[in-house]
Amino acid sequence: MSQVDWLSHLLQMMTIAGQLEVRCAYGAPWQVAWGKSAAHEIPYHVVLKGRAIIEDPEAGTTRELVGGDIVLVTGGSAHVVHDGSGHAPGPTYNRQVSAGWTLSQNDGDGQRLDMLCGRFFIGSPHDRLIRDYLPTNLVVRAAAAGSAKHGPVSASNQLSSLVALMREESVSDKLGGRAILNALSSALFTLTLRAASESEQAPAGLLALAGHSRLAPAIFAMFTDPARPWNLPELAGLCGMSRATFMRHFQDKLGRSASEMLTDIRMSRAANELKKPAMSTEAVADSVGYRSVAAFRRAFTDKIGMTPGQWRSQARDGA
Fold first, then answer.
1. For residue 108, which of 27, 44, 136, 171 is within the disulfide window of CB 3.0 to 4.6 Å?
2. What residues does 22 pair with on adjacent strands?
3. What is the mean pLDDT of residues 224-236?
4. What does the pLDDT look like over 82-98, one tens digit per residue?
């Protein structure tokens, strides 16, 4: 792991699973509507071939997608994906395959679409961390097969290979296909985040750090040693900046302060530790940098929405 691989530390704190739900094989006109997702779910769409329009009324965005585009609806809002013709779609015919996902087709004779749709499931309370630090809708383009525009081992090229494997598995009916597709979906999440961070116009939030690598040492330090009583001058010094410059760049890039992010990391770590029966609340508080249990309880309740004891009981009942 590189000295500033904050993404691995972020993802190691949480449980993420992926699941392919539908493969859409349509001719225009067509339309797919997705309702609002549960807090721990992030829908995804992978356009294998053709074009599509995704509309997110809540975010007020409309975007065209083409073959190779991958979109994560991180905000979980209700959205519609359609062909953009404005014509009323005809009926669809759905067939569940043995691998557990659904093949959806229609009788449209217009431009063809081939698209994979599914969801990522992120364990509570880490779903909030993902939503707070990633854009509402994240769109990444996989490189065309054989493309070396960004180098042979760029995340965009790797995404292309991963999507090709997902396509191959989704048209076969081989033993273990469902498990393989779900495992590939989980890998899709991480690789999409990596590709977004490598793009020339990385979106705001944590993914923008690749375009401002001087901030990465501070992020890495908070992830690797959250119990340390970090102060702004120390974090700024790690980045070779003055306190004022560090505060300004951090707020501009991540949309929140360093102290707020440190608290988010600490509470996410604490939520994991509270699941361990042998860890007392006092020990958990100390492990994430709180010498006062009362202060820890206040911070945890403010961020998670329940007391440490309530969270422990909920996690135990849900095990």
1. 27
2. 102, 117
3. 94
4. 999 999 999 999 998 76
Q: Is the pLDDT of residue 182 over 80?
A: yes
Candidate from 8-12, 27-31, 241-245 with smallest mean pLDDT = 8-12
Which among 61, 23, 16 is positioned nearest to 42, based on CA atoms?
16
Cα dihedral sign, 239-242-247-248: negative
232-236 LR contacts (CB < 8 Å, sep 24+): 232/258, 232/259
Domain 14-198, what architecture? Sandwich (2.60)
CA within 13 Å, CB half, 303: 26
Please give the Cα distance from 266 to 290 (Å, whole number). Answer: 9
pLDDT band at residue 145 under the 50/70/90 scheme: very low
Are the CB atoms for 146 and 83 separated by under 8 Å? no
Report the CATH superfamily, name and number, of domain 206-318: Homeodomain-like (1.10.10.60)
**pLDDT, tens only, 257-286:** 999 999 999 999 999 999 998 999 999 999
**Do the Cβ atoms of 95 and 24 come closer than 8 Å?**
no
Q: Are 156 and 195 in contact (CB under 8 A)?
A: yes
* DSSP H or E stretch at residue 219: helix 216-224
Three-state SS annotation for 124-165: CCHHHHHHHHCCCCEEEECCCCCCCCCCCCCHHHHHHHHHHH
Residue listed under structure tokens 């530790």: 273
Which pLDDT score, from 0 to 100, does residue 150 have? Answer: 46
Q: Residue 218, Cα to own-chain centre: how many angstroms?
A: 22
